Amino acid sequence: MRKLTTALLASLVVTAGASAALAADKTEISVARFFGACEADYGTVTDVTKANGECGIITALINKFNADSKTTVVKPEIVEWPGYDQLTARIRSGEPPVISVMHEAVISDYSSRGLLEPLDDDFAKAGVDVNDMTDAARQGVTKDGKIYAMPFDTHTWLWHINMNLFKQAGLVDSAGKPILPKSTDELMKQAQQFKEKTGKPYFISTLANETAFYTRTFDTLLYQQNVDFFADPNKVNFSSPEAKNALQLLADIFSKDLTTKNQDYAASVSSFAAGEGGVFICGTWLIDTYDQEAKKSGALANGYAVTAFPQIYPGSPRVWADGHSWVLLKQDLTDAQRASAIEFMKFLWDNNYEWSRTGHLPIRKSIINSDQFKNLPHRGDIASLAVNGTALPSAVKRQFSIQEIEGEEVGSAMRGDKPVDQALTDAESRINELLANAK
Q1: pLDDT score recorded for residue 439
Q2: Is 8's pLDDT higher than 70?
Q3: pTM over 0.85
Q4: How far is the C-alpha of 184 from the C-alpha of 437, rounded, in Å?
Q5: Cα-trace Rg, the chain
Q6: 8 A C-beta contact, residue 239 and residue 314
């Protein structure tokens, strides 16, 4: 996701506007981040309220920090999502960034190897009230009783909906709300109706060149059936009838041509904006982007809605979730560098509302409960995600590797490359082998 050009990846380092020029009287720290590159649009923007989308807002935030800080210059290093291969290579070479963005699911892999600095004392001195962290955020950055990261957001899986096409398909109620399925049978029936009425697939899905869609959707369908597939954090269990039901549903959606096919992340994002399908199953981070699109002429004009992932199994409304955070890599830092790193993290803490405009859920109770946040577009439609977003147990190691394996096998069954039973067996055995050898 958030792919960059080869040339940009080769350079890695991008300036954050004129204000980030080296200054002799300031301490420079490197900050590795993904979220894309958008220097042409936001390279000199320091008014964060004028920025939109993940890339725009993080770029403007760094610009503002560099313009305002009297002691620190942040040198951003833009990496391809998710960036962990590059980060691991840089750690091994002895040249890690000072700060790196990191999914909460990955923190334990690095903290357990002594590669991250615990931050409890730093946050207390900087005035970061950890009691203001949401439960999800605090749990996500706490490993073995210590806080190892500054949480940045909680992001979850949901449905982006083209209401103009839903109206054409007769799937809008008298109140103007989308008619959503409450069972797997209703889902298949409505998807077929949508296809017949519009000539387009019900779903837009990111099925090519990455595995995130498969894993996050499959996990959500398991959560909805109350499947505790990681009851033992050292061993996964995909042998349940519920797991087979979920994977067969995905395979049926594919085989009945109810979804787009062969689209990567960039193509599926554009496909939804162009009105090539009714529902884009993706994450919170696109809410602001599509809300802005709905204000323009085009396929989404005055016709964008978003909803928590509909509960199609009679078990639970839970849905896959994770969070972005910022970690301080263990290395030989001067006192000034460490102080600058904490200064930047505190700045992000203070400006968490601005980041929440992307669509991500804020990590501060004081913000998530504020009228300012609640009055943002569509936030009432996804309020339940703050409670129902569910991550893997923190004791599960190698979570990104697990998600890759799971996604590969789920994808193979969804596309019909493997029988459902075989894919589940292979996913389980491969993951358990990985965990058995995890250090």
Answers
A1: 66
A2: no
A3: yes
A4: 38
A5: 22
A6: no
